[in-house]
Amino acid sequence: MNSPVIPVERVIGLDAHPDSFTAGVVRGPTPAAAIVEKIFNKLPIGQLEKWALTHTTERDCVVLEASGNSFHLARTIQALGRKVLVLESCHLGKLKEGHANNDKISAVRIAKACLAGTAKSVWIPDPKTQERRDAFHAHRKAVKRATQLINRLRSYLSDNGARLEPGFDLQATEAIAGQLRKLRAWTPRQWIVVEGLLMELRHAQEQHRHWSSVIAQDVASDPLLLSLVRLVGVREIVAFAFGAFIGEIGRFSSPKSLVKYVGLNPAFDDSGEETWHGGIGGHGNKALRALVIESAQSILRSRDPLARWGKKLLARKGSLNLVVAAVARKLVVAVWYLMNGRYSSLQTIDLGLKAKLGKILAHIEDAHLQIASLTRRSCREQMHQTLLHGRVYQLEPPRRFIPKARPGSVAAEYGLA
User: What is the pLDDT of residues 381-404, one digit of tens each?
Assistant: First the structure.
């Protein structure tokens, strides 16, 4: 959203680094009329709270650029009763001086960008949502690292004439080392390289299993996130990603605003005589959009009514990418209604949903179940009860979200049956 007009006495631009911060105190209604009252240059970051209490008031607005520690600093300043905005770094980067730049110039530039009202402010996530974002990014990095190491291992084997059979699963277990040993007569130095790659791969896969278990456990214990798995194409990773990036669903006033946040509204240019319609890749939350696109592709491979709708659209339009985006958009709209509780209650757990819950439970490690004082059987029963009774729904129009076939079935939730 665009930053609102702020009825404050002063705007204080804060250019923060891991160990220091610079603050520019600006007073004035517009960037042109603004006066720089004072600049605090390169103060230790540990003095931020004391500085804010001494040199700012409740009528001031502190503005930061979105960067590594900006959300933590924003929450710290908010706890002191100060107004805080975090501005999108992409816009501020375009305003950077080409001939000179330092922390003092950056602090004043941040403050004046806020006064101009053209810079977009970003939502400051609460601590729980921030923790979920950290866990999600750690999981993504573990997946990427494991994939990279598998490709490196395959490449090294291929370079040395050791070909793997199609479908060979390179899971770093004790048995895999023996199988690779038999592929050819390795020299001692070559085998040292193979063992090193297997060691790295084993660690990356352990990290992947750990974060998958953390995410599955969080989804299984949260009624809101668990309710999202009712939707076809949504399992624990996608549900957790919605919780991590959306946070409080109330900040999206309509399904259209959530679709825009994800980045599933196509770009267009209708200026002048020419009209241009582009794709969906240049805006929105890339990580969340990628997962929703994968969900849409899995939906099209299923027998869900939404898949039948997508295939009919494909027959008319002839563009698979367009159909995938359209199905993804419908899925995001369904997520908005479901997270707001404007949905039908779940009456029974059908076979498809039972199988999905079983896969989620399979990702939870025994250690995480023991921390929660649960067995696998009790965790499964808890998930069933949470889906059936964990949330209160208030069904409202539009009618397309009212199930027509089996009440409470996953497929019928889209209203396309």
Answer: 999 999 999 998 887 645 444 334
